[in-house]
Amino acid sequence: MEINEVQDPDYEVVTISNLGFVDPYGNEGLVILHSDDKREFHMRAFSGEVSRHIASFLDDDHDTVPTIYKMLEDICEANELLLVKVKIYESGDALRANLYLTGKKDLVLRNYRASDAVALAVYYKIPILVRSNMLKSPIEETT
């Protein structure tokens, strides 16, 4: 797997078009991911804390990195690995993600929380891929 290899016929590269909270207290995060053809995926039911981390990473603030993300970074540095992409998919009623690392050898970490994967992707400025069948046109979302 090469760093620039992101093509997968079942997945689309997406970017964040909106980020915020579902509730007025900031307890539940919401992120809207969109593809180049403007189809969207609304991801919610994750902690407001993760949403705040994503927001700070989007602002290039890397001073408030959660310790679990820092631990992954330390492990990658020690093993000469780079996180190169994340893939988000549905697993039953939950959203999960695979983390793709490359270096001396390729490694895939499977079945992690999708919200953390999005945060890591923003932190490292790497591609976020979403399974194509999860993307809907904005009109489909509102009906």
From TrEMBL:
SUPFAM superfamilies linked: Hypothetical protein TM0160
Every BFN domain range: 11-142
MF GO annotations: nuclease activity
Protein known as: Bifunctional nuclease
